[in-house]
Amino acid sequence: MRFASFEVGGQATYGVWKDEAHWVQVPAAFQAVHADLKAAIAAGQLAQAAAACEQAGHVVAAGAARLLPVIPNPGKVFCVGLNYKTHVAEMKRPDSDYPAIFTRFADSLNAHGAPLPHPRETQRFDFEGELAVVIGQGGRHISQADAWNHIAGYACFNDGTARDWQRHTHQWTPGKNFPLTGPLGPYMATRDEVPDVNQLTLQTRLNGQVMQKASLADLIYTLPVIIEYLSGFTRLSPGDVIATGTPGGVGDKREPPLYMKAGDVIEVEITGLGTLRNTVAAA
Predict the structure, then answer these.
(1) Is the dihedral of CA 92, 258, 181, 191 positive or negative?
(2) What are the DSSP calls for 213-250, one per residue?
(3) Which of 14, 66, 200, 231 could bridge 5 with an S-S bond, Cβ 3.0-4.6 Å?
(4) Pair (189, 169) in one structural domain
């Protein structure tokens, strides 16, 4: 199943992703009980939501609606840094015994197809294509063996980064949280749609040119390791988002550096999860 969040007539809703141009809105009666995609996930009602769309959903044309981040209102957004050997090497960072974790605010997320605002405060606006995990069943102290059962689904993510602000101090938070700099989507594919994450390939393209390409099998810290670690210090909740890290090839470490600018088209494509596409716009 593939789910998207979107606005129709200025009202936030959600439903099944049919294709790039058509989405099926959940019936009003279903949304009255499960107000948004996060609520449907929390209630374990994704299959029922899909069935409701099949039986009584309203087909919405993309031109009559506006996509939202696939989870518009996550309680927590975690990001894993330095999680591919190629990225560790280009950043000239030592290996670590634990995953590097930072957070994003919910209002830093953006939608597929929406303008990606270039922060006026930086000239070093970089791309980072990533796999995002959406938590289904919440919990604390989740074991690696049980971690897969806590995943609702997967989506593409672009961790747009103001590199200079990221490095003002050793804390990365400022460079990672400019409003609307983290597109998430275009849809969430449920876990059953992805039998083996290690078979997925991630590719980031800037104006059609491949910048990053990697297998998800190259993750240093696997999804179970990340979920076990995060749930060791905080409770994971339904709808929480985990961005799992970016491979080598970021613009900041190219010779010469290559940053996003107004008018650029940036795409993150992951096998089976679609293509997340945004055009950079002046802030």
Answers:
(1) negative
(2) EEEGGGBSS-HHHHHHHHHHHS-B-TT-EEE----S--
(3) 14
(4) yes
40 inside domain: yes
CA dihedral over 173, 176, 182, 188, signed as positive or negative = negative
Tell the residue number behind the tokens 């716009």, with chain if given.
Answer: 281
Token duo for residue 56: 């009584």
Give the dihedral sign, CA 47/53/54/56. Answer: positive
Percent helix, percent strand, percent coil in the chain, to nearest 5: 25, 35, 35
With beta carbons less than 8 A apart as the criterion, state whether 221 and 228 touch. Answer: no
Q: Give the CATH number, domain containing residue 237.
A: 3.90.850.10
Domain membership of residue 19 (yes or no) is yes
Angle at 42 between CA 40 and CA 43, to 5 degrees: 65
- Structural domain harbouring 59: 2-67
36 is a domain residue: yes
* pTM, entire model: 0.97
